[in-house]
């Protein structure tokens, strides 16, 4: 076997070294991610330049690139907190968050890659304890869920704005009370509903009775006015009108004009 030329070995070594250097220097950043450059021999973390975007990058082999996900992410938390009267409440909530893209270098320098555990979880837990502590279990169970969701979001957002993290939304998925408290609240709500229904029936009955009374009073007033306005002459005229109409009916046979009392017509039928 022919021996390699003396110049061949150094070339092979150089090629191997180049391959290793390129491999260590090549950085690929996937979609939804960004890179923070750390310069070993110059000031460390780069904070005065935009993060490295998606795609292929070449960096010096002695430098490092820390890759962060910059898409919106979700944190799901189960928290045990105390209500205003000291009862333990279980809250299930989700927080939607993402790192502030332009401040990714500052985030890496101040908090590092585990910023979720260092700042986001403590922030949302602190806000939840603060907000829930202002309400009673009954308020949390019925009418204040949207309010505590908005307040937890507002308080958490204030904390995270100083930590290079953007909070997009907080969703309170469930509020669980102790069974005894939950049953007592449900029983009270049922009683209140039954009381409201009873009051509604009373009001409806009262209105119906008032309607009947007004109708009866109206009829009585109408009859009184009619009685006062009827004279013998009017009755006679109405009797004559009725006689004319009845005379045109096939069922009427004999009509004696002036045959009845008060001079009204007397009508004789078939029999």
From TrEMBL:
Keywords: Membrane, Transmembrane, Transmembrane helix. The chain crosses the membrane at residues 7-27. CDD domains: SPFH_prohibitin. It comes from the Bacteria. GO terms for cellular component: membrane. Gene3D superfamilies: Band 7 domain. SUPFAM superfamilies: Band 7/SPFH domain. Its main location: membrane. It is a single-pass membrane protein. SMART domains: PHB (SM00244). It is found in: Membrane. Residues 24-189 form the Band domain. This is Peptidase. It comes from Cochleicola gelatinilyticus.
């Amino acid at each position: 076997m022919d021996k390699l030329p003396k110049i061949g070995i150094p070339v092979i070594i150089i090629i191997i070294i180049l391959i290793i250097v390129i491999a260590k220097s090549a950085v690929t950043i996937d979609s939804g991610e960004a890179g923070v450059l750390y310069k070993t021999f110059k000031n460390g973390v780069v904070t005065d330049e935009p993060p490295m975007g998606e795609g292929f990058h070449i960096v010096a082999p002695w430098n490092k690139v820390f890759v962060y996900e910059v898409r919106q992410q979700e944190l799901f938390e189960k928290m045990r907190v105390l209500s205003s009267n000291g009862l333990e409440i279980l809250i299930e909530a989700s927080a939607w968050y993402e790192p502030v893209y332009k401040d990714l270098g500052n985030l890496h320098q101040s908090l590092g890659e585990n910023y979720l555990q260092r700042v986001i979880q403590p922030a949302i837990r602190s806000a939840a304890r603060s907000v829930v502590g202002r309400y009673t279990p009954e308020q949390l169970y019925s009418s204040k869920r949207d309010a505590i969701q908005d307040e937890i979001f507002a308080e958490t957002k204030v904390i995270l704005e100083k930590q290079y993290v953007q909070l997009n939304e907080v969703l309170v998925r469930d509020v669980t009370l102790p069974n005894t408290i939950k049953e007592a609240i449900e029983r009270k709500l049922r009683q209140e509903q039954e009381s409201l229904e009873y009051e509604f029936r009373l009001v409806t009955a009262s209105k119906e009775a008032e309607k009947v009374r007004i109708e009866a009073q109206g009829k009585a007033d109408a009859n009184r006015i009619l009685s006062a306005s009827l004279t013998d002459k009017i009755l006679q005229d109405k009797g004559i009108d009725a006689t004319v109409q009845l005379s045109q009916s096939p069922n009427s046979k004999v009509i004696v004009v002036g045959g009845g009392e008060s001079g009204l017509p007397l009508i004789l039928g078939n029999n």
